[in-house]
Amino acid sequence: MDRIKRDYVFHRDLKKDYPIITHGEGVYLFDENGKKYLDACSGAVAANLGHGVASIGDAMAEQAKKAAFVHTMRFETNVLHELAETIGKMAPDHLNKVYFTTGGSEANESALKLARQFHRDAGRPQKHIVIGRWQSYHGNTIGSLSAGGDVKRRHAYTPNLLNYAHVYSPYCHRCPYGRQKDDCLAKENLTCLTDIERTILELGPENVSAFIAEPIVGSQQGAVPPPPGYFEKVRELCDRYEIVLIIDEVMTGFGRTGTNFATEQIGIEPDIITFGKGVSAGYAPLAGMIVHDRIINGLIQNSDGKFIHGYTYSGHPVAVAAGLAAMHVYDRDRVLENVNEQGPYLVDRLLELKQKHSYISDIRGRGLLIGMELVRDCEHDQLFDPSEKAAETLNGIAMELGAVFYPGTGSIDGIKGEHLIISPPLNVTKEEIDEMVNILDRAFTIFKEQLRKDETYEITK
Ligand SMILES: Cc1ncc(COP(=O)(O)O)c(C=O)c1O
Question: Keyword Cytoplasm on this protein (predicted)?
Fold first, then answer.
């Protein structure tokens, strides 16, 4: 078919031409010209079991033939119950009820609304403000965008956003509060924590409904884990001021960081965990939230048991069938064990690259969610200018060479700071890791040549 004639798609970037993918197999995607791409970022950290897993496709087809759609206002399906039970059992002890949505933004939107209804029904009607964190991402709907702190995504919609508050998330590599990590930890005095309490008191605790955070900051900062003890203190503050703690595991859930949920590693029980992406390993639009018994009991005791919310496609049978089949594959292929084996290997290989290329200033993350901070010159800590689009350029070169990574900008202050996320499917092999790191190595070499050419051009101009 002629390319122009079929181009009715409202592309992500209307000025860009995108390769057409015809199929995928394992960690590889293939385009219509037969070019092969190693998917080193699982799409958007979603295709966690790789491509072409027949058992998931078969389960979806079977469910579609049996009952493709029922409306959860009137009916439920066995697959819905089975998947909810599987997820509920993976979650911390007191988080047992699972609510499904079609995407992570909707999951967070639902969590923010549930927090608000919970307080209202319990006789705390003033509680409505959400505290989020700068350089964190919770989605693109107005509520989730308002709670998030992605400066570039927020700017275009500033007049439409809700009046939510934000604190800085702990980015110890470049502390936004100007503190030194060792000093902070030694004194057990983290400014990022004192700032949360100060913000709550300034807003008035009686007005604060929820605090929302990613356990490991994903797309906006490039896989930044929290300092030890941070979330325990956040939990304490939320308890003290009756604030619902929402942990956004849309990117980190289902084994990505080496445990079913990253929440296990931060050692707390949130009130709500939101999830997405990995729940169906990208085979269907599926996401949701897992809710603490306390909130569910509140809904039962203080109201008519109804969450005043809902979507047509909540608990869509074909999507939950995909989720259930994905859970079987995670289990059958011992995917969690593989993450804990390949994660450290990937980090070691990337640290080798760090020795070789002075553009890499930091490697961080957990499991197979690894971030790499990029600077112009590591020795002098010279940052790239955002206009250089360093991470995107590097990823473009890698794509030419046959591997795709997840580039990001704004990790330092929302505008400055370039990073790449390396997050292959969780069943990746050592050989595939070697292949992706070797491609990245070659991409850095070409990137360096291009920068040199640009610099020579600048000087001779
Ligand atoms: C942590 C986090 N929360 C929420 C979202 C939004 O999810 P979705 O794009 O499925 O709406 C994302 C997506 O990247 C995410 O990484």
Answer: no
